Amino acid sequence: MVLGRLLGALTGDAGRVEPAGLGPRFQEALLPGEQVLAAFRTVRDGFALTDWRIVVLDRQGMTGSKTGILSVPYRAVTRFSVEAGGTTDLDEELKVWDRAGEAPLSFSFRRGTGAAMAAQALLAERVRGA
């Protein structure tokens, strides 16, 4: 268990966190009244599912002080998938495609935490309602 957490931290596998764990730039990106349903963080980056969009934080550069913020409204999501970890895999992956049709957003999760399936279920619920 400890080894899995250590490897996850080194490889950047996402784990569920409180929204405040994504930092002040994330908080600034939220609209007044927007509710965060779930938040996930890797070593540098993170993403959140709010009541109307996916917010992705992409920390850039050596220090990570420059942060890109990408917003994808649920109405723009065209498909998504979860790749569950196999016997030798240490991670699971959630991929999300939007109308832009480019490469999907891809999020890695530590295997066995349930975070990938929780994110997928929440995403399915929001896309269905969009």
Automatic annotation (TrEMBL):
Gene3D superfamilies linked: Bacterial Pleckstrin homology domain
Pfam families: bPH_1 (PF08000)
Sequence ranges assigned to domain Bacterial Pleckstrin homology in this UniProt record: 8-119
Name of the protein in question: PH domain-containing protein
Species name: Teichococcus oryzae
